[in-house]
């Protein structure tokens, strides 16, 4: 994951955090994928729920979008589909 985090783009998009079985744990959107996704791994700013989530993550998938609005719509559609 550390190498993946260094290669994230500074673009808007949607991220999906997965566990070792490939189950999606969390879907989120970001105006800057690198800044948002790496923030989960900043030990200073994590609450107990975030630490629990981060401990289960084995991979992260991203979808880069053209705008924040597009990221918002994609996130919303993914959440509805995955429920």
- By secondary-structure content and strand pairing, the structural class works out as alpha+beta
Number of strands: 3
Largest sheet: 3 strands, antiparallel
Tell me, briefly, the overall form: globular
What level of helicity do the residues show?
Answer: 40-55%
Q: Report strand %.
A: 15-25%
Averaging pLDDT over every residue, what do you get?
93
Rg, nearest Å: 12 Å
- Spans of at least 5 consecutive residues with low confidence: none
Question: Which strand order does the major sheet show?
Answer: 2-1-3
Provide the fold topology.
Elements: H1 2-6, E1 13-18, E2 24-30, H2 33-39, H3 48-56, E3 59-64, H4 68-82
Quickly describe the structure.
The protein is α+β, with helices and mostly antiparallel strands and 83 residues long. Helices cover 43% and strands 23% of the residues.
């Amino acid at each position: 994951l550390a190498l993946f985090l260094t290669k994230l783009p500074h673009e808007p998009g949607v991220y999906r955090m997965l566990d070792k079985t490939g189950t999606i744990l969390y879907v989120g959107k970001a105006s800057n994928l690198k800044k948002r996704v790496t923030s989960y791994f900043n030990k200073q700013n994590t609450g107990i729920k975030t630490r629990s989530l981060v401990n289960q993550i084995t991979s992260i998938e991203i979808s880069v979008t053209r705008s924040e609005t597009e990221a918002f719509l994609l996130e919303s559609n993914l959440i509805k589909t995955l429920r």
